[in-house]
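dumping this here so i dont lose it
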């Protein structure tokens, strides 16, 4: 799969831009703030219907502009598809593939998969388990629609049960019978979801460790530890026994919404003990594993976008990373760098066919 062309109107810093890409390696070079990441974000929109960086679509409309338009032409299995995304200020986003709209935008997920490696990925290490659960949930949901349904149903119960706990605290009246009705569905769904998460991690881990070993030259060992209470034999009893604590705290304290994913390096949490370069290597390995995983499950080679990935990596790691990315397993790749010379020095014939673009003054120009 590859993006043949992209056209933008009033999207962030671009009033108008049109560009044709090649089916393999595309580099965007330009100074800080020139608009490299914005190009990647517009491509991210075409794949996911959303921005990779902010929840508010209106932030993507150019300051003082009234709308934005993104049009892309994608080639998938030798067929061409037109993807259109636009937003007028104060109205609903329009999203079309080959001129037709979806009933639900979520139907687009997984059709034109993309993997983005960007500086803000470090939230996967820095932030709470919620961010890691969301990341892994989104990968599992791409190929297991049953998982997504279970998750939606579980979150629905959780929201209702928490609302009930709050209401009981406000009114001062405890309704244990009503609370009891949530126990069996939440305990059962928790067990099913946790089982799927556990077998996902078992399958994902070798992909992840293999990528890390290739980048770090086997200098250290990384691990993803998945912790859940939902698979203990007496989880039903634990859930029931926790009721008094739930009433006091006004929220559900046990269930898969409290599952943990811990990244470890040589047996210690990387968040506390990993160096910056090790953390960066881990994040890149995680995303490359996502790439391999999505590719094998969806039978489509995702687009790979690498935004500013060289910082904090030593020369050995950069070389090994480039040789991974230059291998046959990848299809179309986008790479941004503020330092044109560095990018040029890393490129060789193995990245052909290749295009280099300079981004400056809100324009994107192909270089020789
Ligand atoms: N809605 C908007 N309207 C106009 N300009 C915007 C909008 N949103 C962001 N920008 C501008 O886009 C520019 C940032 O672009 P981008 O993040 O793509 O830069 P970059 O080339 O990736 O830079 P860096 O090398 O620092 O990562 C900033 O100058 C910012 O003001
Ligand atoms: Mg950037």
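and the seq i came up w/
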């Amino acid at each position: 799969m590859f993006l043949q062309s992209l056209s933008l109107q009033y999207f962030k810093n671009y009033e108008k831009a049109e560009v044709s890409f090649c089916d393999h390696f595309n580099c965007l070079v330009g100074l800080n703030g020139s608009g490299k990441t914005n190009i990647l974000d517009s491509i991210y929109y075409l794949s996911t219907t959303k921005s990779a960086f902010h929840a508010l679509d209106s932030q993507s409309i150019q300051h003082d502009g009234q709308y934005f338009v993104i049009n892309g032409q994608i080639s998938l299995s030798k067929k061409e598809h037109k993807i259109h995304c636009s937003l007028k200020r104060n109205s609903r986003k329009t999203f079309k593939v080959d001129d037709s709209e979806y009933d639900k935008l979520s139907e687009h997920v997984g059709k034109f998969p993309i993997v983005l490696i960007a500086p803000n990925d470090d939230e996967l290490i820095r932030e709470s388990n919620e961010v890691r659960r969301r990341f892994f949930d989104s990968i599992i949901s791409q190929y297991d629609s049953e998982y997504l349904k279970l998750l939606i149903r579980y979150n629905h119960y959780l929201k209702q049960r928490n609302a009930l706990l709050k209401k009981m605290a406000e009114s001062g009246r405890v309704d244990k019978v009503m609370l009891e009705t949530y126990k069996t569905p939440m305990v059962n769904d928790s067990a099913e979801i946790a089982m799927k998460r556990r077998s996902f991690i078992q399958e994902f881990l070798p992909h992840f460790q293999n990528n890390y070993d290739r980048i770090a030259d086997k200098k250290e060992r990384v691990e993803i530890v998945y912790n859940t209470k939902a698979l203990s034999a007496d989880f039903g009893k634990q859930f029931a026994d926790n009721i008094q604590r739930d009433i006091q705290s006004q929220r559900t304290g046990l269930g898969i919404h409290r599952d943990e994913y811990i990244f470890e390096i040589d047996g210690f949490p990387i968040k506390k003990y990993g160096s910056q370069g090790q953390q960066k290597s881990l994040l890149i390995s995680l995303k490359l594993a996502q790439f391999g995983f999505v590719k094998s499950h969806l039978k489509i080679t995702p687009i790979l976008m690498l935004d500013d990935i060289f910082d904090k990596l030593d020369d050995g790691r950069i070389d090994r990373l480039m040789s991974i990315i230059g291998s046959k397993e990848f299809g179309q790749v986008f790479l941004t760098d503020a330092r044109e010379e560095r990018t040029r020095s890393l490129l060789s014939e193995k990245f052909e066919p290749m295009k280099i673009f300079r981004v400056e003054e809100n324009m994107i120009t192909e270089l020789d």
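The pocket of adenosine-5'-triphosphate (ligand 1) is lined by residues 12-13, 30, 32-38, 59, 61-63, 308, 338, 359 (CB under 6 Å).
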